[in-house]
Design goal:
By secondary structure, this protein is of the alpha+beta class. It folds into 2 domains: 2-39 and 190-225; 62-182, no CATH class. It is built from 4 helices and 6 strands; from the N terminus they run ααβββββαβα. Strands 1-3-4-6-5 form a 5-stranded mixed barrel. Strand 2 (75-81) and strand 3 (85-96) form a beta hairpin. Helix 1 (2-43) packs antiparallel against helix 4.
């Protein structure tokens, strides 16, 4: 009888914990959806002037419009784009009309266009401020000699290009050969539904296994009493 009680308590506790984890993930999914909705609203809002001192915590994804000069020199960040395959994001220095130097992510070119000369000179840029987090412990260091980067590390790119650590990801086309790749909320992870399904599935499996062990233990106990 004690073994049956132990199995019952163990089974109920396990199911309870797994259901609680699944419910927590559902709640987190709702919170994340609200965050993504706010990000989408900020991304698609009418563009404003670039703040005097942009800050990641306050201004990430802010839609801005600037006028100035696209300067020579660029950083090529290895990437892939849809069905176009491997290529590079072109990050270039940009001098504002007030003299500040920032960076513009102009968009994507295929690998075959890496050495192509890009348009420079005066041009407006409309896009979103972004400080992407794309590095981890496995990200290779940039090959400066070959101008091949593996992540848009804003601070490091700014040092190389001699600009402020400010990056605008362009919405508008700044060169006939460059495809703009605007920021969007697809880069914001929201895997909570998958996690919730996993926890609820484990709860169902735990409940089924607990019921099976209870049934087998009870059957064994009854067979021994005969």
């Amino acid at each position: 009888m004690r073994s049956l009680l132990f199995l019952l308590i163990f089974g109920l506790c396990g199911v309870g914990v797994l259901l609680a984890l699944g419910t927590w993930q559902v709640r987190r999914m709702g919170v994340k959806q609200e965050i993504i909705a706010r990000i989408d609203a900020r991304m698609l809002a009418p563009a404003v002037e670039l703040p005097a001192d942009p800050a990641p915590a306050r201004d990430k994804y802010l839609a801005v419009s600037v006028t100035g000069t696209m300067l020579p020199g660029e950083i090529d960040v290895l990437t892939s784009y849809g069905f176009s395959g491997a290529g590079y994001r072109i990050v270039a220095p940009y001098e504002l009309s007030d003299g500040r130097r920032i960076m513009v992510d102009r968009g994507y070119v295929p690998t075959s266009q890496k050495q192509t000369t890009r348009s420079t000179g005066e041009m407006p840029v409309t896009g979103n401020l972004h400080w992407p987090i794309e590095t981890d412990g496995f990200t290779p260091v940039p090959d400066i000699d070959k101008n091949i980067w593996f992540a848009r590390e804003v601070a490091d790119m700014a040092r190389v290009l001699d600009t402020d650590p400010v990056l605008i990801v362009a919405r508008n086309r700044t060169d006939p050969g460059i495809t703009p790749v605007p920021v969007n909320s697809s880069s914001v992870p929201n895997d909570h539904l998958n996690y919730a399904i996993t926890w609820f599935s484990l709860a169902a499996i735990w409940a089924a296994m607990s019921a099976y062990f209870l049934w087998r233990s009870r059957t064994n106990a009854e067979s021994k009493s005969i």
